[in-house]
Each structure stands twice: as structure tokens, then as C-alpha cells.
Write a structure and sequence with these properties.
GO terms for molecular function: transferase activity, transferring alkyl or aryl (other than methyl) groups. By secondary structure, the chain is mainly alpha-helical. The protein is about 60% helix and about 0% strand. The longest helix has 29 residues.
């Protein structure tokens, strides 16, 4: 018997009251919804909010770059467009992953895994969300349309064969996190299309997304607790180990802080003081990923992490304070001159 078949047998007969499948009471109760609403449950809208930092940073560079009414209209329009494209990507992701998700202790309860969905309905929903999202972006701003199209293409590359980058170790993280950079660009172009954002900002945001995705995989890998079963759920897990996932997370976090440090110091030297607290945010997230059934696996659960939300709020307050306080002594960090001994 092959190792893969042995792992499948081990999964099927594994006790559900211990080991890698520690489930909450009542979680194993089957949901019987088999109507069209189960398909809509596949569409996740939570990650569309990641485009707001792009708008915020662009406004800091030029506070008068857009009016309040113009921003509200453009922001609402493209938030909806981004939600639709993101939902289309989630629909195709969950549909194509349904045979793999049954090996995950939580995802096996998704509607597309438990229920017999009609492929025609799924693909029709996917097409409708895609067309609606692109049509919303098309008449308003061409740069934003291209960003939405890019976001959709990344969903194809990540999920659909023969590309399916999600099955390739490290490439899966880097390609999935490109969506983070795209959302930043969408937020930026909502404000203006006169300038591109700083490259260091885009790279910093991209690597921050890579950190989140690697940490998500690290938390999933630890929860499953069996490399063979983990490989059945996600093919890239056949090459990953806890150590490689942890080290890659550190690498992405350090790259992110490097590039974000560059853009912050160029914009306002005071923001150098923000960096230790930003590094602390990465450390805090590492700590969350070590929890059992960690919120790092499902971003929508992060809002229930009160400590993290308080930390982020304090970080935003510190950011705003540093923008409006004069600290001339910090020029020592940006000056090209050496400090004389005498």
C-alpha cells in the first residue's frame, strides 16, 4: 500500500476525540443545506478591506489629492468591485479544493465539501461575480480596472491547473500574497492615478502578506499534526516542515520591515520610532499562530483577538502622533554627514 493510501486510511479511521483532530462539541454535526445559498457561502468578502491602507498612505503624501465626496464615491465603487472579484476567487478556490478540504479538521465542514453542489451553478456564480466585478471597474478608471483584472488572473494562477501555484512550496505563499500588493494599488489609485506608489511600500506590503500566508500555513500544519495527512490536504505540505514554514515566516517578516522602514523614514523621519512597535506586531502575530485552532488560519477570526485589535489601535494612534510631533534630533538617522569627535 502506498504512503498516500496509508495516510488516507489513517485519516478515515483516526479517532476524533484526540490527536490532530481536536474538534469542538457539535462541530461534527452535518449541515444539510443543499440549496443555492450554500454556493454563496463560498464567497468571502473580508479581505477586500486590505485596500484601505493604500488610500490612507496616498492621502498622507498629498492630503489635497482628492475631495471627500470623490473619495467616498470611488472608494465605495471599487470596494464593491474588489469584493466581487475576491468572492469569485474564493468560489473557484473552495470548489476546486473540495476534495482536499475533506482532510482538514475544520474545512471539511464547508458547504461545498459536505453537500453535493451542482457544478453548473458554481461556475455560473463564478462567472457572474467575475463579470460584475470587472464591469463595475471598467467605466470609472482604467488603472483600477487593470488592478481588478490582475486580481482575478492571480486567482486563476493560484487555483486552476495547469498553473495551480498553490501546490508549489514557497511559490504558493508568494503568489497568493501578490493579492495584498494588488489591493494596496487599488487603494492608491482610488485616490489618484498621477503617480505610482513607492516601490518600497509595495514590496513591504507584499512581504507582509507573504508573512501572513506563511504563518497561516504554519498554524494549519501544526494543527493537523500529521505530515502525511497534511500532504493530502495541501500538496505543498508534502515538501514543507514546521521548521521551513517558521523560517520562511521570519524571512518574509524581516523583508517587510526592511521595505516599510525605507518608505517610512523617507516620508517622515519620526516614523523610525514606529518600527520597533511594528516588529512587535509581527511577534504578536507569531504568538497567535501558536494557539490551538489559531485565528491565523482564518483572517475573519482576527477581529475576535482583542489584544491584537488593541495593539493595532495603539499603533495607529502612535503613527498619527509621530506625524505631528517635531523631533529634530532624529535627523541623525538620515544625515549623510559623520558626527565629529570634537
Amino acid at each position: 500500500m502506498s504512503a498516500e493510501k496509508q495516510a488516507k486510511m489513517k485519516f478515515l479511521f483516526h479517532r476524533k476525540d484526540g490527536g490532530c483532530f481536536r474538534e469542538r462539541d457539535g462541530q461534527n454535526e452535518k449541515r444539510k443545506r443543499k440549496n443555492i445559498s450554500s454556493h454563496y457561502a463560498s464567497g468571502s468578502l473580508d479581505q477586500a478591506v486590505f485596500y484601505f491602507p493604500g488610500s490612507g498612505v496616498r492621502s498622507l503624501y498629498d492630503p489635497g489629492s482628492t475631495g471627500a465626496v470623490s473619495f467616498a464615491v470611488h472608494s465605495s465603487w471599487f470596494f464593491l468591485s474588489t469584493c466581487l472579484i475576491a468572492s469569485a476567487n474564493y468560489v473557484i478556490n473552495e470548489w476546486l479544493d473540495r476534495d482536499f478540504d475533506r482532510f482538514h479538521p475544520v474545512k471539511k465542514h464547508r458547504s461545498v465539501v459536505e453537500n453535493s453542489a451542482d457544478p453548473k451553478i458554481v461556475y455560473s456564480l463564478y462567472a457572474a461575480l467575475t463579470v460584475a466585478g470587472l464591469l463595475l471597474a471598467l467605466p470609472v478608471e482604467r488603472y483600477l480596472f487593470w488592478m481588478e483584472l490582475w486580481l482575478w488572473i492571480m486567482g486563476i494562477l493560484y487555483n486552476v491547473k495547469p498553473f495551480r501555484t498553490k501546490d508549489i512550496p514557497f511559490v504558493d505563499v508568494l503568489t497568493e500574497s501578490v493579492n495584498n500588493a494588488i489591493r494596496l494599488l487599488i487603494g492608491w489609485f482610488v485616490i489618484t492615478n498621477d503617480f505610482f506608489p513607492p516601490v518600497s511600500l509595495v514590496l513591504g506590503y507584499w512581504f507582509a502578506g507573504a508573512f501572513l500566508m506563511a504563518d497561516k500555513r504554519f498554524s494549519e500544519y501544526r494543527m493537523i499534526g500529521d505530515p502525511q495527512v497534511a500532504g493530502l490536504y495541501r500538496k505543498s505540505f508534502r515538501m514543507y516542515t514546521e521548521k521551513s514554514l517558521l523560517l520562511s515566516s521570519f524571512f518574509y517578516a524581516m523583508c517587510s520591515t526592511l521595505f516599510l522602514g525605507i518608505v517610512l523614514s523617507k516620508y517622515n523621519v519620526n516614523l523610525i520610532l514606529l518600527m520597533p512597535f511594528l516588529i512587535g506586531l509581527f511577534c504578536y502575530y507569531f504568538w497567535i499562530s501558536y494557539k490551538e485552532d489559531s485565528a491565523a488560519q482564518r483572517p475573519e477570526k482576527l477581529f475576535h483577538e482583542k489584544g491584537l485589535m488593541i495593539y493595532v489601535l495603539l499603533l495607529i494612534i502612535l503613527f498619527l502622533v509621530l506625524l505631528h510631533v517635531r523631533m529634530p534630533f532624529l535627523s541623525v538617522f538620515t544625515s549623510k554627514d559623520l558626527v565629529p569627535v570634537r
